[in-house]
Amino acid sequence: MPPHPMGETAGRRDVLLMGASVALAAAGCDGPDEHGHPLHARPRGVAAEDASYATVLDLEGLGRGVLVRTRAGHAVKLEGNPQHPASLGATDIFAEAAVLSLHDPERSRRIRRDGAPLPPAELDAALAEARAALRTAGGAGLRLLTGPIASPTLARLIGEVLAAYPGARWHQHDPLADDAALAGAMAAFGRPVAVLPDLGRARAVLCLGADPLGPGPAQLRQARDWSSGRREGRAAGRMPRLFVAEASPSLTGARADRRIPLHPAEAEGFARAVAAALGVPGLARQGAHPEAAGIAAALREAGPAGLVLAGRGQPPAVHALALAMNQALGAPGTSLRLTVPPLAQPEPMAASLAGLTSAMAANEVTHLLVLGANPLAEAPAALGFAAALRRVGFTLHAGQWVDETAHACRWHVPLPHPLEAWGDARASCGTPAIRQPVTLPLVEAARGEAELLSALLGPPQTARAAVANTWRTAWGEADFESRWDAALEAGIAGEPAPAIAPALRPDWDRPGEAAPATLTAVFAPDIGPEAQNAWLQEMPRPLTGLAWGNAALFDPLTAATLGLAPGDEAELTLEGRQVLAACWPVPGQAPGCVTLPLGGGRRAAGAVGTGRGFDANRLRPADGAWAAPGLAVRATGRRAALVATQAHHRPDEAGAVPRLAPGEALAPIQPGASLHPDWAYEGRAWAMSIDVDACIGCNACAIACQAENNVPVVGPEELARGRGMHWLRIDRYDAPPAAPAAASFQPVPCMHCEKAPCEPVCPVNATVHDSEGLNVMVHARCVGTRTCSNNCPYKVRRFNWDDHRRALDTPRRNPEVALRPRGVMEKCTYCSHRITAARTQAGLEGRALRDGEVETACQRACPTQAITFGDLNAPGSAVAALRRDGRSYALLGHLETRPRTTYLAQTVPGETA
């Protein structure tokens, strides 16, 4: 990793990492023509400029509903929309970090031609000239390149452009696209289908490389369903079973009851063995695996509540086998729903980009519009896209940043951020939603995709008009206005896609070619297009603990055989292409596989994202394959600069997560002797309970805490020194291979100990208890001795080594949380400002606080509802009930700190691990 480009001064580093100085200049700009509609009426006691709006954000082209809290016209915090079926009130790391991307000072702000800024009139003239030339040629030579699209409006406009220009063609590119899933569905059913699992109703699940709990547009819904199913199964005394066979560890694999490391060459044989044991008819070839019979027995016992999922990177034959196994189990209608795919995808995306590249190389393309895509950073280098692009006369790139593709195109147009723009999107389940501008625009020259597409048809129309026309056609004119307002207020514009019931084709099984079991490169998603987001860069990856970069992931045995230690640099060679990468051994990695995260090594991702890690696309095959055999690895003898925030934990270490069989209980938490004086806490007693059995380690809580509490980013150098400022960390504990659970995740905020060891050692009484049990920091008193941190057994107190206030004091920051000066301790406050706001509102309404009315930021973000917060002294409160649960335990409880944050142990089937 090269030296941090922001290391000149602390001030410059902070401004570029966290700053949003451009928003300061834009604060006086005119707002959007029409503001969005508040989801809820503004309560008394809240400033008139505060509001909450419903909108939708895309991930891999699919929407998740969010609520945006604004202050004086600027977005401050995002939370999930409870009414949207893809979010159910939760958020993922990408949604939480969107507000930082919105205020990124390095966003593109000017229209450019050959790198030089130009007024919008110049672009309009160029588009008019291109439109005239293309109409004369019937559209021959026109190509559109987009990312994945589930927007009804964009799909409609692209269709109108193709109709107006018969010789034009639409291409799509998504580096995370799973074309094999499309091919598998075509083999099984003769048509594309979307597979929507219901993990809440499934009693036995087999994931063939699938990661339903991992990052993705359906993660929030699937994680909620999974945790609900576990709670119901625990209450019934029969936990659902989760089996995962995969090459590289995933969040789903970490929570599996049985995880099988599987080389990609063995995936189809394993799937065939399970299918044969289930008695699936029509198998053209058998398979064998020692685990197959036991897994098939569990699936057969579950019947229609059994479920088989094939994941990204599996060959088409495995996808077809998964669909056939689900049909044999009777899963459709119970644990599975099949629908029409929500993405408008005319052809496989890898073939689409390859076709565009070939056409450009053959001089068949005269005009290329790249809308919201970055193929020069995300396409395989073997494809030769960059060289072919230079042969096109008119190239226009529209994006939020001047990225790699923007530098290669003649024209660049800044796109508005989704929080500034009108649009629409379908969720993974097909539910449509309208996107509305929820913040003042920060880029005056921005043009949306809808405006650029309409410019090809004639005088451009506004994005709002384009979206309204789409839904006016769908709803009719009679009740359009009322339905429009209702859709904006609710954040949804229709129902999910109806289920379909395709029949399995008689010749559905089409075996694939046997892959050689050599050292294989396995490509995997990472933060990718969000490389410029400092929150995501500094977030430790849940399974490796790495931040600010990536590494090639090896299984420990393979790494040792190659003479590679953690952090060693290795030269990776595949089909003559080479890249240098750091080595990082990971428990659970399948032997003979090297996982290469995509999205690193960016060349034009701003000061935050440029040069972080290595670019795996330099090795990826031209067809976008997710696995490629024949990888060669050579140790260079050098060390790579990695930022690792956590070593691997063993289950026997202090603080390990207890694992209980269903119905088993721990001894109740009983207060013991203490040298600290007792305090009755006769009023409220705030407390938190975290269900480790529900935690999937997704980090949404940590990013939500950072966004809510103005937690600064410190950069890679300071993070490597152990000076990270996160108020909430996620500890991971790896289990032995024979254990019934692969790993456990344990969120660790401040424990708010009643007998807090940090308090008596503070020489200035800066860390104290209030009457409700909160361990609070009086920053005006703190002189930075750090004795409190030394005396904290949980290591949750952070010393602020630098003054980040200038970077944080922007329209993005939460004004309810004060900025902290340099030289003081910081830590979790249980979002005390939210407690104060709820108490004030209850007082204005003349009532008592309700249980659950106060939600901490981490609690609200959690997709599995693993975090419960409330008053221990309130009769019938949820947190008090969980404290009495047989799974409740205190972290390091033997120290008698009496923490207000307690945990619920992990439940595993069978014997206790």
TrEMBL record:
Domain of life, per lineage: Bacteria
InterPro entries: 4Fe4S_Fe-S-bd, Asp_de-COase-like_dom_sf
4Fe-4S ferredoxin-type domain location: 686-716, 741-772, 773-802
Any one Pfam family match given in the protein's UniProt record, by short name: Fer4_11
Name of the protein described by the UniProt record: 4Fe-4S dicluster domain-containing protein
Native source species: Paeniroseomonas aquatica
